[in-house]
Amino acid sequence: MRSKLSFERLVEMGAKMGMENPLFLCHDGAAKATTRINGKEYINFSTYDYLDLNTHPEITAAVNEAALRYGTSAGASRLVGGERPPHRVLERAIADFYEVEDAIAYVSGHATNVSTLGFLFGTRDAIFYDGLAHNSLMQGARLSGAERYSYNHNDCDALEKMLRDHRAQHRRAVIVTEGLFSMDGNIPDLPRLIRLKKEFDCMLMVDEAHSLGVLGATGRGVREYFGVNPDDVDMWMSTLSKTLCGCGGFIAGRHELVEFLKYGSPGFVFSVGMPPIVAAACAKALELLQREPERVHKIQQISQFFLQYARSKGLDTGAAQGYAIVPVMVGDSMVAGFLANALFRRGIYVMPITFPAVKEGQARLRFFLSASHTEELIRRALDAVAEEIPHAQEIVDNYRREHQDETE
């Protein structure tokens, strides 16, 4: 049986087979529906400017104004070096958007999850998380020292059984999920998760990194998609780097929770504060999201078009529901790499996702969509995918036949 390939081994073997490394390519400017790399234009599916807000003139103006007044750095941790008005404007805007009491903005999205879970929970507690939860959520669970229970992806029956079997053994517990899963592009059963949270006396944390601005009639995320009470979720988390085209992350919820994090969460207390220019950019992006809901409608429409057209071409889109993230399942990691290479040569920039980022045998190309994509760009890209898959498979099959000892 062929052994699992580490990512480093995959790149090494790919190089021997003539596959170019698709990582760390340098873009000449802003990456929108198209991007330029080394002077050549590509159809771009590898950045998550979901609402086509990056480079918006109002955001650029807000950044310029903030830079002139506050400079480009917060200068220190907000706890010791103080805050700037853009920090408070952003956090108030986030809390109002989620219809909760307060919010805290971290300088890193990954650190938001790691530091929040690591700080709030301890050895007497339990963290129940979806099997496809983001690395940052799993790292935060590990850091906490709490007992960790991973339930099968989107399987609320499995979660309920785990809760019945284990919840009573722990002081506190939290259920952790995503609003839109970053690998499969599907949505959790949030109403049932809320019911389970209440039945088993748990907290509930929802990571909306990819669902903010994408789900719901006005982009308010998975809560609007299902029509749930925002207070039924204890911690609303999201990054600021996707829909809000900045950098960092936030937790929104009750005021007492936010104050506790501000005075104790290591990723906030011991990290430099978010640059005021970034806070200003994110606040303006959030304003534009609410002022221009047609952007939300466009990302939803173009995502559904992508999903349906991909299926019409016989492509496997896995569990995707047609919201901003759609995988094309390939299976074999090497085939995914060669497929991405072939598409790049044809002017299409899309990343292969391979083991260990996904389970062995579940490699895929992951397409991030934007309100700036057109149906014509999508047709061109997916036509090319359908044409190139058998060629990529043939290259890998031939190599393995000729170098059987190396690939076992």
Structure characterization notes:
By secondary structure, the chain is an alpha/beta fold. 44% of the residues lie in helices and 15% in strands. It is built from 15 helices and 13 strands. It has a 7-stranded mixed sheet, with helices on both faces. It has a 3-stranded mixed sheet with strand order 1-2-11. It has a 3-stranded antiparallel sheet with strand order 10-13-12, with helices on one face. Helix 4 packs parallel to helix 12 and helix 5 packs parallel to helix 6. The model has no long low-confidence stretch (mean pLDDT 93).
Task: Offer a quick outline of the entry.
The protein has 408 residues and is of the alpha/beta class. Helices cover 44% and strands 15% of the residues.
Helix-strand topology string: HEEHHHEHEHEHEHEHEEHHHHEHEEEH
Number of helices: 15
Beta-strand proportion: 15-25%
Distance between the termini: 7 Å
The strand count comes to 13
Question: Over all CA atoms, what is the radius of gyration?
Answer: 22 Å
